[in-house]
Amino acid sequence: MGMTITQKILARASGNKEVKDGDILWVKVDQAMLDDILGPRVEIDEKMKELQAKVWNPDKVTIISDHYTPPANTKQADIVKFTREWAEKHNIKHYYEYIGPCHQVMVEKGRVAPGEVIVGTDSHTCAYGALGAFSTGVGSTEMLGVLVSGEIWLKVPETIKVLWNGILPKGVMAKDVILRTIGKIGHSGATYKAIEFAGQTFEHMIMDERLCVTNMVVEAGAKNGIIKFDSITKEYLDSRNVASEYIYDSDEDALYAEKYEFDASQLEPLCACPHEVDNVTEIKNVSNIKIDQAYIGSCTGGRYNDLKIAADFLRGKKISKNIRLLISPASKEIWERCAKDGILTTLSEAGATVLASTCGACLGIHSGAIGAGETCVSSTNRNFLGRMGSEKSFIYLASPISVAASAITGRLTDPRELM
Asked: Is 248 in the same domain as 303?
């Protein structure tokens, strides 16, 4: 019987010729990523001292301070300081801060390669599947084991195959693709499963958009998301000088737990309504909802393509006087590229406030938290109760172009209304 991409990666990393769903494996980790919020300060430092242990391979560890940068208070500043000093103490050369959310930084810095096993102390570590890697989020206790041994205990997940065929219509983006997928599968329908994306739609999807899709598979409960290596993957990796040593594709006779098929040509702009990511509807169905804040940013919706599309849409227009539009590029590299290309100027002229590259607003800890009774439409990945601030606020998730359209009208808006 054939194997899926995920099975092949885990077989290679565990030293087996083949594996099957449900197998329990000791897997060698190729890369480990820690951030500031759930990194060394949470149990890891204390337990490593007790064990008198060292990091198994500092060159395979990346630490990124992104949630608390720039710090909003002394507590956050102390956490960043601790993280920085811990990285230096343990000879972690790949330490970064003030340059954006960890998942964008990981791919930009060439810390992700296809066929690798990558674990990180953030649930959206699954984003790296866009590059053909097996990547998943782990807790601090699991990361402690990885740091001292270089291995992790994993169960081979069943795989759900999701096929998207057809070309996306104007005004529709990858965010709509993943929202439709999650809406169909449900917020727990893929629990401890892999989601493998394929089809004509992905053959024409740039890496910025692919990263958005795999980033959000955890919102359906998935262990990992993955897209096979192709010419688009190769072009992106070549631009980062990343070698492609392990390239896998699923066998034709591979077994799947479930299969879903979608027609991209029929997809419309969507949004996820409070307070669940799978509470999905066409944005036109909730166009009576007034907003207080619009947010374009994060490791899900703040890449160059996202900001360019939003800027092109807003060029020559002004946002509603009754709302605020916040922009946070997904990395310092993207910030600088957008500045050079005039994208940030266009957004600012439309009335947007351009922020640093940070995770702050996405989880409501700084740089754009929303208050009680306020409604925000956001290109981020979660709309849980209190996710972006007050537990009495309301969050709608949508694509960057839908967020831009909503900023103009002051209400949830299908961007095609303004085209």
From this structure: no
Instruction: Classify residue 281 as exposed, middle or buried by CB count within 10 Å of its CB (0-12, 13-18, 19+).
Output: middle
Q: Are residues 242 and 332 in the same domain?
A: no
Q: What is the pLDDT at residue 21?
A: 97
Closest Cα to residue 314, out of 413, 212, 394?
413
Reading the block at residue 404, the tokens are: 């831009």
Q: Which of 314, 303, 308, 300 is nearest to 379 (CA)?
A: 300
CA 325, CA 379: separation in Å to the nearest integer?
A: 12
Last-in-domain residue among 262, 291, 315:
262
Residue 1: what pLDDT?
82
| 257 and 343 belong to one structural domain | no
pLDDT (tens digit per residue) in 345-377:
999 999 999 999 999 999 999 999 999 999 999
CA gap 323, 143 in Å, rounded: 41
Residues of the chain with confidence (pLDDT) below 70: none
